[in-house]
Amino acid sequence: MCAGALLVGGMFLMMRTKVQAPLLFDAGGLIATTPPTIASLPPNASLKDRISYILIVKVMTKAQSATKHLFPPTPTTNRCSVQGLLNQCTGVTGERYLMPPFVAAGTVRFGNTNTLNGPQWVSAFENALQTGTPEWWDAEQKKMRDENLVLIRFPEQKTVLVLPQEKAAEFQRTNTFGKVDGSGQ
User: Fold this and answer.
1) How many domains does the chain have?
2) Among 13, 63, 140, 175, which has the highest number of CB atoms less than 10 A from its own CB?
3) How many helices (H) and strands (E) are present in the chain, helices listed first?
4) What's the whole-model pTM score?
5) DSSP letter at 79?
6) C-alpha distances in angstroms, 111 versus 5, 73, 75, 80, 148?
7) Strands 143-146 and 96-99, how do they pair?
8) Beta strand pairing status for 116-117 and 70-71?
9) Which phi-psi region, left, alpha or beta, contains residue 180 (left: φ > 0; alpha: ψ -120 to 50)?
10) What is the CATH number of the domain that holds 113?
11) Model confidence over 30-82: pLDDT tens digits?
């Protein structure tokens, strides 16, 4: 009886677990986004610190689920970190963004005049990457470079490639993007 229940439970879990499809290209040398996380406690934290941490995490989780990704207006357009805000996008959508290190270190002007929900904010930021002329350091030319980026989506893998225009064209032709290690292009 117990073995049968374990077998049925295991089969149920396997059916419920979605396996992410593998990428159809080598993503070596690319930076991947990570969703924002709450800092963890050190292993030697006191009981008082552990209790405080649990209470704070519960309050923050409850507050977040009450608003579920609302982004207030920002009165001015600021230079924002490409990787930093794509990490926020990952936290909202669960999609992973892959980009060369020089793009990850870049900035883009971004702001919103109205309160946006999560999907609206992600769409607005992705639009800024494609139309707001992000900037990054071009190590080969030894100067700042500014141009719109291209987003190439892989829905089955829940992955979005974020590439400069010539790298995107090269990728679409060859399924590779050449040198992406930041030492030049």
Assistant:
1) 1
2) 140
3) 6, 10
4) 0.73
5) E
6) 53, 7, 7, 9, 17
7) unpaired
8) antiparallel
9) alpha
10) 3.30.1370
11) 999 998 876 677 788 888 877 777 766 666 555 454 457 788 998 778 899 99
Question: What letter would DSSP give residue 29?
Answer: T
Task: Give every CB contact of residue 22 below 8 A, 6+ residues apart in sequence.
Answer: 157
pLDDT of residue 151: 97
Residues in the chain: 185
The Cα–Cα gap between 23 and 13 comes to: 24
Residue 150 clears pLDDT 90, i.e. is over it: yes
Answer yes or no: is 23 within a domain.
no
Does 63 fall in a domain? no
Residue 27 lies in a domain: no
Dihedral over Cα of 10, 15, 18, 24: its sign: positive
Domain extent at residue 147: 69-185
